[in-house]
Amino acid sequence: MPPALNRNLVGTWHYKATSGLIDGAPTTGSLRFKPDGTVDDPDQVLGSNQQQSSGSIIAKLYTVSNESVAIRLATKDQIVAIIFLNVDANTCDKITLRPAYDQSGNYIELTDKAN
């Protein structure tokens, strides 16, 4: 039996999506979910850190509640985007997520976890 989602998500995962989560974002890469609620996104699969109208993205944060994950993209002064993901599957070596707003069947797979 896999750990609860909030514990299982912590670590470095290979990321693969059927489409870019944010327009123009890559569909493959890696993400590291840290115990402090921050996300390292070296491949910018959650969107680039480029200048937004309200400043550059300086933090990517996540929270887990029940069977969903919320990812917040923040500038120095405010949250500029929130991505809501529903959990379809949570196993020891794979987590499958679906964007809550997407009815077209897109999904994200997190696989090959390294701690």
Write structural notes for this entry:
With about 120 residues, the chain is mainly β. It has one domain: Lipocalin, CATH 2.40.128. The protein has one helix at about 5-10; strands spanning about 10-15, 30-35, 40, 50, 55, 60-65, 70-75, 80-90, 95-100, 110-115. The strands form two sheets. Strands 3-2-1-10-9-8-7-6 form an eight-stranded antiparallel β-sheet. A two-stranded antiparallel ribbon has the order 4-5. The longest helix is centred in the first third of the chain and has 4 residues, at about 5-10. It is globular. It starts with a helix and ends with a strand. The relative contact order is 0.23.
Count of helical stretches = 1
Shape: globular
At CATH level 2, the architecture is Beta Barrel
**What's the helix-strand series?**
HEEEEEEEEEE
Q: State the secondary-structure class.
A: mainly beta
- The spatial strand order of the largest sheet comes to 3-2-1-10-9-8-7-6
Mean pLDDT: 87
β-strand percent reads: over 45%
Might you state the CATH topology name? Lipocalin
Instruction: Catalogue the unreliable spans.
Output: none
